[in-house]
Amino acid sequence: MSLRQTEDQLTRDMLAATASFINCVGGVDGDVPTEITRSDVDTVVRALLNNNAYTIMDNIEGEDKFGTAPVRDAYFALCSTNLTGNLDNIAGFVQKNQYPAPMNALRSEWGAAGNLRFLISSIGSQVANSSSLGNTVYNIFCVGMEAYACIEQDGYSASFIYRPPIYDGPLALNASVGYKFAEVPRITNDLWVINLRATLAS
User: How far apart are CA 112 and CA 73, in angstroms?
Assistant: First the structure.
């Protein structure tokens, strides 16, 4: 788990440092950026569509089931778990359990709004004290298909290393575990990834 989380953190930091951004402006918290709203979702989706970014997930067709709603084909929106309360307040937000076929959702998926499906993580990108009012700004990376990639250096893929204990003396009684990798995350098309910056509603 540590290996994959480290890869995720490196990718997160690369996107935070290099992706173009749009500030949320549709909220009412008086900050810059504001909390995320449906108008902000529509703005970033329209930008990705205008840039000819392909959606990643197919639509989920509606079914005759109580309390469900169809889900559009969508881009991914990668964000922090701290945003879950604000996501629930987006107009027209569909929780994962309201999908007609929730088995088609990813484990980290929280729900969908418009053409964005939100994936949450405890290591989602955030920058403390960086809004106009000194609040934490949360980066929501809205990505189309093949917007970024991890490039293995010289074909060097990740290696998991385990050395078992040797029971022939007092100097090698403990096992050791580690990993190493040589890869670089990078954006493959600047037009297909947008950082939607938001704060939390007060």
Answer: 10
- Expressed as residue numbers, the domain containing 58 is 2-152+184-198
Residue 172 inside a domain? The answer is no
Cα separations (Å) of 98 from 67, 92, 93? 6, 12, 10
In a domain, 144, yes or no: yes
Q: In this structure, what are the phi and psi dihedrals at residue 47, rounded to the nearest 5 degrees?
A: -65, -45
Residue pair 21/40 in contact (Cβ under 8 Å)? The answer is no
Cβ–Cβ < 8 Å for 7, 184: no
pTM for the predicted model, two decimal places = 0.89
**pLDDT single digits (tens) 155-186:** 677 788 888 887 776 767 788 888 888 888 99
Residues with Cβ < 8 Å from 70, sequence gap 6 or more? 59, 60, 61, 62, 100
pLDDT digits (tens, 9 = 90+) for 26-79: 999 999 999 999 999 999 999 999 999 999 999 988 888 888 999 999 999 999
Cα distance between residue 127 and residue 173, in whole Å: 44
The four Cα atoms 133, 15, 113, 45 give a dihedral, to 10 degrees, of 100
